[in-house]
Design goal:
With about 425 residues, the protein is an alpha/beta fold. The protein has 13 helices and 17 strands. Helices cover about 35% and strands about 15% of the residues. Helix 2 runs antiparallel to helix 10, helix 8 runs parallel beside helix 9 and helix 11 packs parallel to helix 13. It binds pyridoxal-5'-phosphate. The site of pyridoxal-5'-phosphate (PLP) has 12 residues, from helix 5 and helix 6.
Length: about 425
């Protein structure tokens, strides 16, 4: 498609966009009395208006039914989480029994390390990406120390080449081969939070398995953003948070995937609790743990229903739209943002560099822009003028034109604000 940086062109794209009206399903903050242009759905997704209805429902049931709500609410609480199995499994390319919701992201990483990081004196190393999200780095360090190893020895980072912004697939594969039979686990962010680079999860998972390692993925920036086929890719496990692209609300519950092939393996240790116990016999209060078959068997506590309610509202919205439609719009709107950024860079010498891969297969909806020269003042200008973006040291602004609630007109208007910001600096 040949793009134009004009209001009429943007409006024409909006008129052809089948998802355009979904903007009305969300609440937008306001700046200077106007709805903002929101580019930080990769950090905290906007609130779907229907989330409030779902939360109110639980509040009402609690008020009117109290303990009876566990079994007699319209959506009973005791198996409330099972409502996620179908829609959520479709979002991540899994069987319904392979997904569950529980806890929060880093907690779930730790819990799944119990099952999938089983170091031995020979095989104890973990491969991750250089500059992984800090929480993941702390998790790795504490895990290897917990098992009696030194992070400098046990954690192997895949580095970017000198002068490059992204990690090459060939370097990931070479590192997996090199570590070989010392490799216990590969655990990488499916989409890098800083650059927006998407890793080839299928190929990397295969390579990890070839040397006898488990392969897991942190999908914080992938779930609800890119196409996932976790089951077919033979991924061992994956986790994601739900408050980024999945719009479930601040700090909200995490999702997990555990491949079917591990469900019946009683050699895999796990930390257990009553909510993972055989569903039919859960309330018999038996002394011995008998796990539910499937990812639900990794649950520990009874679930925070007030947290699950907005997450369910959002997951149902995703199911209604479907990932295929979202991805189709994502590709166009991200390319349009890229086009507008390049036009303005050319027109007014913005002096910025997009460090996210240009290849569509290697990115989702985030574009990370490195500002050569003065960056922070431009960021401040954007924020003051109703464009919500996020700043990462040393000089990067991340833009996520989330397809579910961003319009092409938003992109055009953003471009005009950016241009004025550069010219008046
Ligand atoms: C956002 C994010 C987290 C956040 O972890 P919480 O446990 O939800 O606070 C962790 N890892 C990655 C890669 C992230 O992008």
């Amino acid at each position: 498609m040949t793009f134009e940086n004009s209001l009429s062109f943007a409006q024409q794209l909006d008129s052809q966009d089948l998802l355009h009206h979904y903007q009305n399903e969300f609440s937008f903050p306001q700046v200077n009395g106007k709805k903002v242009i929101y580019f930080t759905g990769n950090s905290l997704g906007l609130q779907p208006k229907r989330a409030k209805t779902y939360v109110d429902e639980v509040m009402n049931d609690w008020a009117t039914l109290a303990v009876e709500g566990h079994f007699y609410a319209e959506k009973p609480w005791w198996d409330y989480h099972e409502r996620f199995a179908n829609p959520l499994s479709q979002l991540v390319g899994a069987l319904p029994t392979e997904v569950t919701v529980m806890n929060t992201l880093t907690i779930n990483l730790h819990l799944l390390m119990v099952s999938f990081y089983r170091p031995t004196s020979k095989r104890y190393k973990i491969i991750c990406e250089e500059k992984a999200f800090p929480s993941d780095q702390y998790m790795f360090q504490s895990q290897v120390r917990f098992h009696g190893y030194e992070p400098e020895d046990a954690i192997v980072e895949i580095k970017r080449r000198e002068g490059e912004h992204n990690i090459r697939l060939e370097d990931v594969l070479a590192k997996i081969k090199e570590v070989g039979d010392e490799l216990a686990l590969v655990l990488i962010g499916g989409v890098n939070y800083y650059t927006g680079q998407v890793f080839d999860m299928k190929i990397i998972t295969e390579a990890g398995h070839q040397v006898g390692a488990y392969v897991g993925w942190d999908l914080a920036h992938a779930a609800g953003n890119i196409e996932l086929q976790l089951h077919d890719w033979q991924v061992d496990f994956a986790v994601w948070c739900s408050y980024k692209y999945m719009n479930s609300g601040p700090g909200n519950a995490s999702g997990c995937f555990i491949h079917e092939k591990h469900h019946a393996n009683s050699d895999l240790p796990r930390f257990a609790g009553w909510w993972g116990h055989n569903k039919e016999r859960r309330f018999k209060m038996e002394p011995l743990f008998d796990p539910v078959q499937g990812a639900d068997g990794w649950q520990i506590s009874n679930l925070p229903i007030l947290s699950l309610a907005p997450y369910l509202a959002s997951v149902e919205l995703f199911a209604e739209i479907g990932m295929a439609a979202l991805i189709a719009k994502r590709n166009t709107i991200t390319a349009y943002l890229e086009f507008v950024l390049c036009e303005i860079d050319r027109d007014v010498k913005g002096n910025f560099e997009i460090i996210t891969p240009t290849n569509q297969a290697e990115r989702g909806c985030q574009l990370s822009v490195f500002l050569h020269g003065e960056g922070r003042s431009l960021f401040d200008y954007l924020m003051k003028n109703g464009v919500i973006v996020d700043w990462r040291e040393p000089n990067v602004i991340r833009f996520a034109p989330v397809p579910m609630y961003t319009s092409y007109e938003d992109i055009y208007r953003f471009g005009q604000i950016l241009k004025t910001g550069i010219l008046t600096k």
